Every structure is written in C-alpha cells, then in structure tokens.
Amino acid sequence: NMANFTMTTGFLLMGFSDIWELQILHAMFFLLIYLVALIGNLLIFTLISLDRKLHTPMYFFLKNLSFLDLCLISITVPKSIANSLSHNCSISFLGCVSQLFLMMLFAASELFLLTAMSYDRYVAICLPLHYEVLMNGEICMKMAAASWLSGGFFGALYSVTTFTLPFCGSKEIHQFFCDVPSLLRISCSHSHLAVDVTMTFGFGLGIFCSICITVSYSHIVSTVLKIPTTEGRSKAFSTCLPHLFILMVFITTGIIAYLKPPQESDSVIDLLLSLFYTVVPPTMNPIIYSLRNKDMKAALRKLIAWKYFSKELIPKAFP
C-alpha cells in the first residue's frame, strides 16, 4: 500500500538552494530573523507580565499575540535552519502532521486574536465611557480562550482532511515547511472534497475577520478625525495604521497562497508568499506594537534600572 509507505518514510522539504554557500547564507539569515523575533516577543511577554501598569486589556491581548508569534515562527524556521546546515531535508510523517496542525492552530488563533484586538481598540477610542464594562477581565479571558480554541479546531480540521489523502510517487514538498497547498500537489488523489470544504470554511472565516477588523478601524478613523488636536490624531493613527498594514500582509498573502491554482507552481513565489505570512508578522509585530509604545519603553527602562540597582545594592546590603 503506497499510502502506508509514506506513513513510515515521511517527506522531503524543499531547500532554498543546492549551492552550499547559499544554504549557509539562508541559515544565517533565518537565524538572524528568528533571534529578532524571539528576543522581541520574549521581551514583550516579560515586560507585560512584570509591570503592574501594563495589566490592561490591550496589553493582555498583546501578551497573547507575542506568545502566538513566538510559537508560529518556532514551528517552521528552526527546522529550516537545521535542514540547511545538515544537508538533510527530510521530515517524518508525524513531524509533518504536527507542523501542519500547529501552524494552522497558531495562524488561525492569531487571526481571531487580532480581530479581538481591533474590537478592543474600537471600544477604547469610540466608546471610552463604556470601556471598563465592555472589556473587563472576564470578557478578555473569554475572547483569548475563544481565539485559542478556534485555532485548535482549525488545526485539527486541516490536519485530518489533508492527511487522510493518499500520498504516492514524489515525496518532495515544494515548501520549507508542511502546508496544505504543497501537500495537495503531491497527493495522488485528484478529488479532495473534504480539504476543499475546509479551505472554503477557513477562507470564509478569514474574510469575516477581515470585515470585522475593517469595520472597527473605519469607526476608529472617523472618531480620530474628529479629535481637534493634531497630536491626538497622529497618536491614534500611529497605533492603528501599522497594525492594519501587518494584518493586511498576513491575511492577503495567506489567502493568495491557499487559493493559487496548484498547477501554476512557481516555487520561488510560493516560498516568498509563505515567508510573508509565517515569518514577517512574528518578526514585525514586536517592533510595530511595542517598541514605539510609550508605556512599553517606560516598563523596559524600569526593568533595566531594577536589574542595575539590585546588582548595585546587593553587595552593599551583604558586605
């Protein structure tokens, strides 16, 4: 049975180049990106956890986002670095299943969380008097939990529908991680109704989230335009516009990658597209959401000062 043959042997992921020097270059580039994402997201997570002033709904969602981003980039990038350095592009069947499941879980959770975040900003800017009631701790916890559970549901749905297909012939996946479009390409089943239905469902929800986010932001923009001071306006815009930009990159590249007809397979374009929805958001989110944020900068300064002073004080306290 050819399907069982794949079960035991696994797949081959695509390398970025056959030239050893370029592989090293790719590994170094990915390592750099990974470290930036890792440090940025860990820093946000730590600062929000430690600083009491940042225990608000907005930062609660931001902390969740950092954790999701950390997970999202850790599923694909380290494996790709290891493959480049070891000259070995294989991934086990179980490894491939778990990569696809986790990838979907974190990407879908992130989309739902970003929708919740846009609603949070909408309430904060457009209905400030009702903010305490509409965004209390319990509601925020429920929204975050719903994001995670929905992500898990989609992860399971995509994994089950994709891996029940038979795989025979070529085991080479034209992608640096296991994703649905590239697995469909190497499946020997021409009809994959279950996957198509799942994809349509996912696509519909993606569009629904995009509409919700657009509505939230259009209300925010119209409210912001009524702010009399230029400073107030620019402050509100500077927080909203970058969010919107990264979000659009994340959603549009994901949709294009999944809706592109499999025959028109240009591996370079596929790789670039997938970079935009798997690697760019986790790396850019910390920069966009936090490093330009006054409260986060203050928290960072506090943390550095605390570390510095505790080092200074300890020897004096214990001569």
TrEMBL record:
Keywords: Cell membrane, G-protein coupled receptor, Membrane, Olfaction, Receptor, Sensory transduction, Transducer, Transmembrane, Transmembrane helix. The keyword Isomerase does not apply. Residues 40-289 form the G-protein coupled receptors family 1 profile domain. CDD domains: 7tmA_OR14-like. SUPFAM superfamilies: Family A G protein-coupled receptor-like. It is a multi-pass membrane protein. One of its GO terms (molecular function) is odorant binding. Gene3D superfamilies: Rhodopsin 7-helix transmembrane proteins. The chain crosses the membrane at residues 24-48, 60-77, 97-119, 139-160, 201-225, 237-259, 271-291. InterPro entries: GPCR_Rhodpsn, GPCR_Rhodpsn_7TM, Olfact_rcpt, Olfactory_GPCR. PROSITE patterns: G_PROTEIN_RECEP_F1_1, G_PROTEIN_RECEP_F1_2. It comes from the Eukaryota. One of its GO terms (cellular component) is plasma membrane. It is found in: Cell membrane. The keyword Transcription does not apply. Pfam families: 7tm_4. Odorant receptor. Belongs to the G-protein coupled receptor 1 family. This is Olfactory receptor.
